[in-house]
Amino acid sequence: MTKLKKSLETPKYIKRSAKLISFFSDKLAVQFAMKLFITPIKFPTPNRELNMEKKSKIFPLELPKAKKDFMVYENGNGSKKALLIHGWNGRGTQLVSIAKELVDLDYTVVSFDAPGHGKSSKNTTVMTDFIEAAFVLERYYKGFDLIIGHSLGAMSTINVLGRGFKAKKAITIGSGDEIINIIKDFVKTIGLNEKIAHKLKEAFEAKYNKKIENYTVHEQIKKIEIPIFIIHDKNDLDVPYSASENIHRNAKNSKLLLTEKLGHRKILGDSKVIAEIKEFVSKKI
């Protein structure tokens, strides 16, 4: 079996730069870390996603608050509607295996490239942009029956539902829980001291005028009544599965599936996971 790896390993030159900058100034280290944290990396679309891309109707929409554009993918022509939200450094076609099954289940599948991702314009982005995009699409499509998110997209899924997004069911895959833990992990990954994490949190809150605690997933899920299927792999090296366990503990109506040896990305195309998703989606409420 292929050894599981993090979705993105930090290049050594970034770690060296971060340590050098922090030696001279914590303030500069925070600025350096923030720039890295909000700037996604665009990767070429893998061959496995090209067929979905080819079959999709692709068009741009705008985020009025963030003043950024994003690209939308519409696939299928079903009577029900599903919104898929990719994770950091992902694309609107990243959940291709799930999208294919949903089209077969009579869904029109809508996804998008968040700002700075995929075919969207090069830009910085944060989770609030993902959240705004979901609400823009909710208005555009006049609601959804199902919403599914992976990683940061999963965190965004619970946050939009907690803020009034209407759907009948939801699925999260590999979700994080508390943003401060993500910041701590990121700071550690680029080789900086944990004290920079707390200063980075303060810098984010000052820049965006929002408390990051307002986006804690296990708090937002307490507001949600609809059935939620929470999926996570025990060998996920990007996001610990304890995050999904905590989210599940705080949910009113959730089912938890913990897989093994799939990691953060392979889980999206695993046949057994897809079968579980189909069963959840098809089950009458």
TrEMBL record:
One MF term in the entry's GO annotations: hydrolase activity
Keyword annotations of the record: Hydrolase
Family matches, as InterPro entries: AB_hydrolase_1, AB_hydrolase_fold, AB_hydrolase_sf
Gene3D superfamilies: alpha/beta hydrolase
Transmembrane stretches, start-end: none
Signal peptide: none
Pfam families: Abhydrolase_6
Gene Ontology cellular-component annotations: membrane
Descriptive protein name: Alpha/beta hydrolase
Organism: Paenimyroides tangerinum
Lineage: Bacteria, Pseudomonadati, Bacteroidota, Flavobacteriia, Flavobacteriales
